[in-house]
Design brief:
CATH superfamily of the largest domain: Aldolase class I
Structural class: alpha/beta
Number of strands: 11
Mean pLDDT: 96
Pfam families: NMO
Order of helices and strands: HEHEHEHHEHEHEEHEHEHEEHHH
InterPro entries: Aldolase_TIM (IPR013785), NMO (IPR004136)
Strand content: 5-15%
Cofactor: FMN
Strand order of the largest sheet: 1-9-8-6-5-4-3-2
Distance between the termini: 14 Å
CATH class of the largest domain: Alpha Beta
Bound molecules: flavin mononucleotide
Helix content: 40-55%
CATH architecture of the largest domain: Alpha-Beta Barrel
Family: Belongs to the nitronate monooxygenase family. NMO class I subfamily.
CATH topology of the largest domain: TIM Barrel
Catalytic activity: 3 propionate 3-nitronate + 3 O2 + H2O = 3 3-oxopropanoate + 2 nitrate + nitrite + H2O2 + 3 H(+)
């Protein structure tokens, strides 16, 4: 199989395989492992303040000489109104109560104590650190940011979950579109946090292919050779892996979280807004079952509010109050290294491809 295509050229890699950004899971070691396996690693920076972004980027540079991508969240931030302040306090009390009822004594931050960062603060840090590839999710970068990054020679990878979003990304000058199917683990990369397009990858990918002229990376549900090659047939030139790497030795998940992933079946995986205020796919638990729509603040407020709960639950090995994100393809969550998992996939693809070639 010839892996060379537009994506390998643009990303300067041997294989058009991308380790997905997974905030809270991706580590510098995972990114380095992916890039050292001649694929593209992606460092998830979420909404971290600029100085933290620099720290993580430098830690990754210590582990690899190869280029890697960085990923940021570019969502709008809802205005902090009196009504929102009031709802924040009510939700804080509600969540503290349910946590206490389940023997978790947490003190969540007041609205004055949380720090909301805008992605604009991150852009200069990424330019200063000479990040060659910037991927983003939860919307589109604004015009000045696109101009600034492209003027510095940065290649932009934007996430879409609908044809409309893909077309907007292309028109604004984004170089590569990352098509995220509904089956993907973690947060939906949709532009809106409420009315999300709920389109499966099998439907979305070929429609985006027919609607844009920039190269496409597909993400969502790729976990073996057949799923990878299926997305190639539908128009993908790049293949991004998320959940397949959750159990890897470089993943930041705790052992109890990796075990939980291996223990649950398909009926335990669902979309929920309860932890962050944006839809994300992961394992249902006591928290997702108890937090109803009336106690969910808009993103990023819910996310900031529940951060301390998740931290305490994690420290207590309590799987009922942490967010364990994962996609719909149960891949067994191998505990091997990122490089071994990726290399095994490459070999499987090459074997399957040569079988297909032989049958022609
Ligand atoms: C734990 C977790 C965290 C994630 N964090 C991010 C993130 O920080 N940025 C992002 O663009 N996507 C994030 N995603 C989405 C992934 O990049 C990717 O789209 C998804 O995992 C692909 O689907 P799959 O899990 O079926 O492979 C996350 C996914 C998971 C499972």
């Amino acid at each position: 199989m010839n892996w060379k295509n537009n994506i390998t050229k643009l990303l300067d890699v041997e294989y058009p395989i991308i380790q997905a950004p997974m905030f809270g899971v991706t580590t510098p070691a995972m990114v380095a492992a992916a890039t050292n396996a001649d694929c593209l690693g992606t460092l998830a920076l979420g909404d971290l303040p600029a100085e933290k972004c620099i720290e993580h980027i430098r830690a990754t540079k210590q582990l690899t000489k190869n280029n890697f991508a960085v990923n940021i969240f570019v969502n709008d931030i809802p205005e902090l109104t009196d009504a929102l302040r009031e709802k924040y306090t009510e939700t804080k009390d509600f969540i503290e109560n349910i946590a206490r009822e389940h023997h978790l004594d947490v003190h969540l931050p007041s609205i004055e104590e949380i720090q909301i960062n805008s992605y604009h603060d991150q852009i200069d840090a990424l330019i200063a650190e000479k990040c060659r590839f910037v991927s983003f999710t939860f919307g589109n970068l604004d015009e000045p940011s696109i101009y600034k990054l492209k003027n510095n020679g940065t290649l932009l990878l934007g996430t879409c979950t609908s044809v409309t979003e893909a077309v907007i990304l292309e028109k604004s000058g984004v170089d590569i579109v990352c098509v995220q199917g509904l089956e993907a683990g973690g947060h939906r990369g949709s532009f809106s946090s409420d009315d999300i397009p709920a389109i499966g990858g099998l439907s979305l990918l070929p429609q985006v292919y027919d609607s844009v002229n920039i190269p496409i990376i597909y993400v969502g549900g790729i976990y073996n050779a057949k799923t990878l090659l299926a997305t190639q047939l539908l128009g993908a030139q790049g293949f991004q892996l998320g959940s397949l790497l959750l159990g890897s030795s470089e993943s930041a998940l705790e052992q109890f979280e990796k075990q939980r992933l291996r223990d649950v079946d398909e009926t335990a995986i669902a979309l929920t807004k309860s932890f962050s205020g944006r839809y994300a796919r992961g394992i249902k638990n006591v928290f997702t079952n108890l937090v109803d729509e009336g106690h969910i603040l808009p993103y990023p407020y819910q996310n900031k509010l529940t951060g301390e709960l998740r931290r305490v639950a994690k420290a207590n090995n309590n799987s009922q109050f942490v967010s364990i994100w994962t996609g719909q393809s149960n891949n067994g969550y191998s505990g091997k290294s990122t490089a071994e998992i990726i290399k095994k996939l490459i070999t499987e693809v090459e074997n399957l491809y040569s079988i297909k070639e032989d049958r022609k």
